[in-house]
Amino acid sequence: MSVGTSSAPGSREARRAPASRPPGERADLAGLGIDPDDLPDGLVVADEHGRVICFNAAAERVTARRAADALGEPLERALPLEDLEGRRWWQLTDPYGGLAIRVRQPERNLLLPGGREVLVSARYVRVRPTGPVHRVVVTLRDTEARRRTERSHAELIATVAHELRSPLTSVKGFTATLLAKWARFTDDQKRLMLETVDADADRVTRLIAELLDISRIDSGRLELRRQRVDIGAAVGRHIQAYVAAGQPADRFLLRVQQPLPDLWADPDKIDQVLSNLIENAVRHGEGTVTIDVTPAASPREGEDAGTSVTVSDEGPGIPEESMNRVFTRFWRGSKRGGTGLGLYIVKGIVEAHGGTITVGRAPGGGAEFRFTLPVAAPAFLA
Ligand SMILES: Nc1ncnc2c1ncn2[C@@H]1O[C@H](COP(=O)(O)OP(=O)(O)O)[C@@H](O)[C@H]1O
Ligand SMILES: [Mg+2]
């Protein structure tokens, strides 16, 4: 049986990598007890005729091609790679023709049709040094994930710069005007300008505090100082603060279902979660803001008790198609101020506690946010 041409392209046989490799090669991988499909990187192998004899699962994922289609095809058709200048890579490198001492192609960033970027390196296996190429072994790595994080960092910086600029422009504008024309303004005008400056300075401070939280969340450095938390009382304090600041008391409804399991959490962080959710309900929602505190099944498997907090309002709610985006940074649905960071931080804090958060539609029509925290009692009490 001649190697590499044995399996019909597209057949089931061909898809199963072991059947498509010669016995010697198979022993190597099989000796380790692994299949090419177990490799984390894409692996494509071509035989001495340049026909593909192995196209593993990761290669399918990276190229978005099916192994069944690629097997048996010439390498340049199965992997139509181009460099960033649009030149066909296989023609350029000519593995079967080029210098007979060449054994590899170093890792390069190349493009697949449709602009898909891949990190490619290749090795030419020769029967003997300077002999003809017996196998071309190509590994493929997806650069998409790395690109995405790079892009999201770049976007974050651009957005942050933009968010900081508008309040600072206003601070600079008002202070410059006041300094230049102090005597020409009435006390009321001066007060109004200083109030705007004050509010804008608050906004910058808040934005920076939120960004620091985000960097802690993103880098997994969010520290939790767990204590026993009475979450019903915490919600009560937030409501009192709103009422003291002028919201009508009947705008809020707090329902605590007893008995609740003990809750061990970081009280400051939980306050931050509550403050964000209640503020959103007041600012983006309408009508009565209802907060339900109930015992719940723990979001962690194997633990049976947890606490759920549901914050719902009677406003316009979150459109169905945006629900999966509310927890992403800088997503803002309405124009009512805000940085769009609040819910991202809320989710980060809840998840750092081992909890979960979901968004849905409230019975009253508005938005409904529910988070569930596990008891998380410290080990010394267990
Ligand atoms: N209770 C709510 N009702 C309607 N929309 C909401 C509610 N809570 C949040 N949203 C929407 O989700 C967006 C993101 O919220 P958030 O991350 O807290 O940012 P911010 O409040 O700073 O805009 C808000 O801009 C708003 O459009
Ligand atoms: Mg908010």
From TrEMBL:
Single Gene Ontology MF annotation: phosphorelay sensor kinase activity
Catalysis performed (reactions): ATP + protein L-histidine = ADP + protein N-phospho-L-histidine
Biased segments, Low complexity type: 1-11
Region (Disordered): 1-33, 294-320
A GO CC term attached to the entry: plasma membrane
Gene3D superfamilies in UniProt: 1.10.287.130, Histidine kinase-like ATPase, C-terminal domain, PAS domain
SUPFAM superfamilies, A to Z: ATPase domain of HSP90 chaperone/DNA topoisomerase II/histidine kinase, Homodimeric domain of signal transducing histidine kinase, PYP-like sensor domain (PAS domain)
Top-rank taxon: Bacteria
Annotated compartments: Cell membrane
PROSITE patterns found in the cross-reference section: HIS_KIN
PANTHER family per the UniProt record, alphabetical: HISTIDINE KINASE 1, TWO-COMPONENT HISTIDINE KINASE
Name of the protein in its database record: histidine kinase
Phylogenetic classification of the source organism: Bacteria, Bacillati, Actinomycetota, Actinomycetes, Kitasatosporales
